[in-house]
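Now read these lines:
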Amino acid sequence: MSGADRAQGRGPNAVTHEESDRRGVERAAEWVYRGLWKRLSSAFKIPGAPPELPSLPGDVPRSFHPSRSYLRYLKLYFWVAALAIDALIGLAWLGIFIADREMGVILAAPALVLAIVPDVVAYVAVHLKYDTMWYVMNARSLRCRRGIWNILEHTITFENVQNVHLTRGPLQYFFGIWTIVIETAGAAGPGEANRYAVGNKAIMEGIDDPAEIRDLIMDRVRRSRGTGLGELPDEEGVVVAMWSPDHLRALREIREEIAGLGAP
């Protein structure tokens, strides 16, 4: 606690007026947005619940949004773009006002609307983008959902996962978030499909606990490994082999005999 705080009788948990005002504005914006979100989700028929994955009895899927830091990361882009566009609109209006004051007064209201309305729409779109992003995992699969107007769902099975790696840029480092890329066998090359799901590659953005998610995925990959002959996991999710070495040996002998029948 600083000397100024002690002098003013503030305790270590005291909240300044500025911080209190900021929290009040954030709560009010959140309250307005939630009411707007309810109407928009109803009008656009946006699913509010996470996507479902077929699961075995006892396998409870884990569903979650990206980190809240990811929302702040998106808002940074919004504020930079909004301030740049509003500055251009303001400069254009100022130029007109200097050249022709009467015309400047007439265009003041349209310029204000042109500056504010797109900002409101873009701000709501940022929240909608965040709220419609879901990641769902069960013992065998991962499903990602994104989109407001066009909803995209992408599902991969853990038994086909070949690689999991983490990436992040300078801004993501600042916000403490990562992107997890999960590649499966036969994943398409870069530039195909879209940035979130390229072929059999799934991309999880805005993750603030990447090591935990990566370890969880790799654990399920290990548990899902089979021979490709349709084995099912046991009660703990571990794949149980349906074919013993004797079975496989007998199948190889049959295959060789069949191949021998076709020989001249």
